[in-house]
């Protein structure tokens, strides 16, 4: 499975640039990313090409993060596919707490039951980002 790192930054100019610079200097590519700001903070979730290198770079820069495994599902690029994936997960009682896409158009799912989600996605092409 893919590893997602989540950082919380101050919502001000330059903080995203610093994060991007830290990862770039470490030669870590971002395979998928999402972010949003609220109440003076920015929450950034991303799937790095090399999670251990990314974690080391963040540690060295003093940027706190959390890590978890996420499911990456390759689906057809057509209307309704997100709804289909979400419906299959919901029928299995799996909650999706985050969703975004990779640079290649695959769906990244943060779920409350990764093992169950992998089983449910059995009919779909489940991919890892390596």
Would you give an account of this structure?
- By secondary structure, this protein is α+β, with helices and mostly antiparallel strands.
- The protein has four helices and seven strands; from the N terminus they run E-H-E-E-H-E-H-E-E-H-E.
- It starts with a strand and ends with a strand.
- Residues 126-130 have low confidence and may be disordered.
- Helices cover 31% and strands 38% of the residues.
- Strands 1, 2, 3, 4, 5, 6 and 7 form a seven-stranded antiparallel β-sheet that branches.
- The chain has two domains: 2-68, VC0802-like (2-Layer Sandwich), CATH 3.30.2130.10; 70-127, ACT domain (Alpha-Beta Plaits, 2-Layer Sandwich).
Features:
single chain, 130 residues, VC0802-like, Alpha-Beta Plaits, 7 strands, elongated, disordered C terminus
Give a nutshell description of this structure.
The protein has helices spanning 15-25, 51-61, 81-91, 114-120, and strands at 2-10, 30-38, 41-48, 66-74, 96-101, 107-111, 125-127. It folds into two domains: 2-68, VC0802-like (2-Layer Sandwich), CATH 3.30.2130; 70-127, 2-Layer Sandwich (Alpha-Beta Plaits). Mean pLDDT is 91; it is low at 126-130.
């Amino acid at each position: 499975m893919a590893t997602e790192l989540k950082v919380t930054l101050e919502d001000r100019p330059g903080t995203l640039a610093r994060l991007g610079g830290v990862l770039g200097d470490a030669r870590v590519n971002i395979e998928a990313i999402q972010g949003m700001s609220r109440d003076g903070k920015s929450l950034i979730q991303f799937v790095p090409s090399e999670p251990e290198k990314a974690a080391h770079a963040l540690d060295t820069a003093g940027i706190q993060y959390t890590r978890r495994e996420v499911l990456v599902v390759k689906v057809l690029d057509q209307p309704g596919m997100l709804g289909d994936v979400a419906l299959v997960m919901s029928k299995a009682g799996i909650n999706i707490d985050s969703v975004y896409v990779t640079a290649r158009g695959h769906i990244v799912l943060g779920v409350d039951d990764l093992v169950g989600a992998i089983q449910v996605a059995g009919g779909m092409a489940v991919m890892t980002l390596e």
